[in-house]
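S2.1 Query sequence (Kinesin-like protein)
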Amino acid sequence: MEGASQADSYIDGSKLPKIRVVVRKRPMSQKEINKNEQDVVECFEPQTVVVKELKEKVDLTKYIEEHHFVFDQVFDEAISNQDFYVQVVQPLVSALFLGSKVTCFAYGQTGSGKTHTMMGPPGDSEHKIPGMYLLAANDIFALMEDDSMSDFSVYISFYEIYCGKLYDLLNGRKLVHARENASQKVKIMGLTEAQITSVEETMEVIDFGLSSRTTGTTAMNSDSSRSHAVLQIAIKQDNGKLFGKMSFIDLAGSERGADAFDSKKETRMDGAEINKSLLALKECIRALDQSKKHTPFRGSKLTMVLKDSFQGNKCKTVMVANIGPTISCCEHTLNTLRYADRVKELKKENRDTSNSLMLPRQSNNSKKYELKRKNSFEGK
Ligand code: ADP
Ligand code: MG
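Output structure tokens follow.
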């Protein structure tokens, strides 16, 4: 109950807490349905998720252990990208226009729905159902039409972090380097920043970047589950001064971190790097949440390039924990929820799940939002 009304009150962005951790469960795939796989994840909106784990005793008798978690918001498989956007990302867009640095991470095992959330399901541009990137761009360009924004422009960068190295997806996957300057600002030297003026242009730029992501990764004999994809939309004043920045990070598959212990050297190195960056990320978000003076952003390339998004009261971060529904994902699902739980520890009183479990299911109130919208995505 609380969660839905909370989300509504975040619409103006100024009341948004620094960190929000939300869970999104994906639906069963056709393949899983065909295999008659069991759904072991139950979401009790607005805040509780329960995972049923099948365990075995020493005498081989089986029993079910229930794991309860409480987050800022929990969404089951019925939520569409559009409704998820309204609840989770639109408040960030609103904060962006108040001059904030806002960040949305998608965390989870490979196949849990990170890219579906960020990019939308695959399809050609024209028929594509948009994900967070384009839904946000849609609102950003609607809000840019306001007279007060006439001296501002929008720029986009799109890059990949693979094995601790940065590759510019808008420039043929060129290797670029991050440097910390004398005033301790981190800058990526030579990274393409494309000026964009419409949602259509945003879509073209993203498609362009993704095409170079695919070819680049095939050539390197790796896949997108081993890299973090970072899409940043910056609003700058005409004099070049940064006003606000929105970052979307489609993280490497969280299970890849375990490859750190693989016998193959290359896989092991990839895994170690992913492991390091996901651990550093957790620590940086925790530092932001607890308003710590020291942010351990040097712990990985990922956290280093996001340094300015982890510091100061104006930074707003949402961590989306994407999870699969089935028994075969169960171990990874629990790992994801435990990670998310550590990113932001909710206050004690929220941890008592006995009440939330008895709540009737809430439909998300997604109609109440005030940002101006263009209609280009409606009805798709
Ligand atoms: P990840 O990026 O985490 O590896 P994907 O986003 O590629 O995972 O999702 C894996 C598959 O599941 C894709 O075919 C995707 O379209 C589908 N999928 C994921 N989330 C959803 C959802 N919420 N609704 C419908 N299909 C989904
Ligand atoms: Mg993906």
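The pocket of adenosine-5'-diphosphate (ligand 1) is lined by residues 26-27, 29, 108, 110-116, 121, 225, 322 (CB under 6 Å). The chain is about 30% helix and 25% strand.
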